Amino acid sequence: MNLVLVAPETIARMHRHIGGRTDEALNSCFGISYNTWRKLAAGQPVRASVASRLIVRLSMLESNAKHPAND
Q1: Vertex 37, ends 52 and 28: CA angle to 5°?
Q2: Is residue 7 a contact partner of residue 14, using CB atoms and an 8 Å limit?
Q3: How do the pLDDT tens digits run along the chain, 71 residues long?
């Protein structure tokens, strides 16, 4: 299993988008579980596939925040 550390700056970026620290909120926002969130917050490594998915979701959230849809 390939484990990686997620940069503290990325964790700080995540904090700006968290609507709650429940499994449901974290999963809908970032595609991660509460247990994964705890690992990230503690500076522990996570699976590379999880980190990749997280970075993609975070980038999408930040892109949407900069360019909101015209409803």
Answers
A1: 70
A2: no
A3: 899 999 999 999 999 988 888 899 999 889 899 999 999 999 999 999 999 999 999 999 999 877 766 65
On whether the pTM is more than 0.90, the answer is no
Tell me the C-alpha distance between 1 and 44, whole Å: 14
Residue 13 to residues 31, 41, 71, Cα–Cα distance (Å): 15, 12, 26
- Residue ranges per domain, the chain? 3-66
Kindly state the helix (H) or strand (E) to which residue 64 belongs, with its residue range.
helix 48-66
